Amino acid sequence: MNPLNSATVESAVELSATEITKPRPETPVRQSEPQRLLFKKSARTCKLQGVRIRSIGSYIPLRVVTNGELESQYGFEGGWIKKRTGILERRYAAPDEGTSDMAVMAARRAIANSGVNPADIDLVLVATFTPDFTCPSTACLVQEKLGLDAPAVDLQAACSGFMYALATGAQFVATGNSKLALVIGADVNSRIVEPDDQGTAPLFGDAAGAVLLERGTPEQGLVCYQLGADGAGGCLLDRPVGGTLRPVTPSLVAEGQHFLKMDGRNVFKWAIQVVTETIEQIMAQAGVGVDDVKLFVLHQANIRIIDHAMKVLQIPPEKVFNNLDRVGNTSAASIPVAMDEAFEQGLIEPGDLVLMCGFGAGLTWGTGLFRW
Ligand code: UT7
User: Fold this and answer.
1) What residues make up the domain containing 166?
2) How confident is the model at residue 26 (pLDDT cuts 50, 70, 90)?
3) Active site residue 329
4) Burial class of residue 34, CB neighbours in 10 A (0-12, 13-18, 19+)
């Protein structure tokens, strides 16, 4: 079988259809009743090889925001952020810096690292849930700023966005419909969090990461991957106001309903469950053990979620790359930024297997075992 055309659904068995019972509120008001924590999962996995990451680049904005700054500015409980998340500081975009600006910076670094002619880029995908504008897409802004002759489109899967975009870009490359695809994850989270919400604001930071995809050897690419969604849990992490169903009004803005709302405790419980299960599935399906994987790069949401997965899966710390202590949760940028840093440090080399796992709002998750 030609691996370039081997994107197959290897299993289509739905394991469970249990639901979160919390209804989507009619009014954009958070509800606090207890939930049944039964989440959907999927046994579907796919593979898509013959694609390689030609190069990678990332950008984190200059302004460092420390826990101490947030604690003194908003009266957050001293030490809570570090203890409950592992985050020490994060970066905030400058006031005049948008998601597309950061995406362009990351893309320029990926292009510089590859030595390719930008004129050869024939596809732009931007994963973001903090676009510059609702319309036009951030991808079109990036295409214009880079002067590319390429179709451009945004993908929105929040913190799983990069994994969705990577898998999407890989399909274009594998079919030959893209020779050089620019895949970016970028988010300016500092603009959508409620500054004095201790359970949400300190977790998030701003960043962008980019990869260039092209055809590789039959062994390179997504040896096994899974993209999943559980929309029943959408209300656990959302922006209730600002879309077409509940447009912004002065009173809703005054109430702060346009900010990101997170039921952190229940997202945490979902995350520790989904992350371990999806990684286990991917590794079992691919027939690889922990020793075969060079590096695990998980979405940088909370060190306790990562540590839990590592403990359950018996993955030694030296095989896990984390940078959330310095950058916090950068949503769609989280995985490509961490991978870029790991690559720069020589922790990833051609031929290595890297396990990436993103998870977040939607609810969504995306896990991929990638042969570099
Ligand atoms: O990027 C998008 C995804 N976002 C996230 O992943 C954020 C997830 N949430 C969090 O990071 C944390 O919940 C906050 C930092 C927002 C708040 O932390 P916290 O208030 O200290 O709560 P927690 O995370 O320690 O606990 C959440 C729940 C608790 O359940 P109850 O007591 O509220 O019913 C913990 O007992 O998760 C429970 N929990 C565990 N359950 C099973 C904590 N550790 C475990 C565990 N196994 N290992």
Assistant:
1) 49-215
2) very low
3) yes
4) exposed
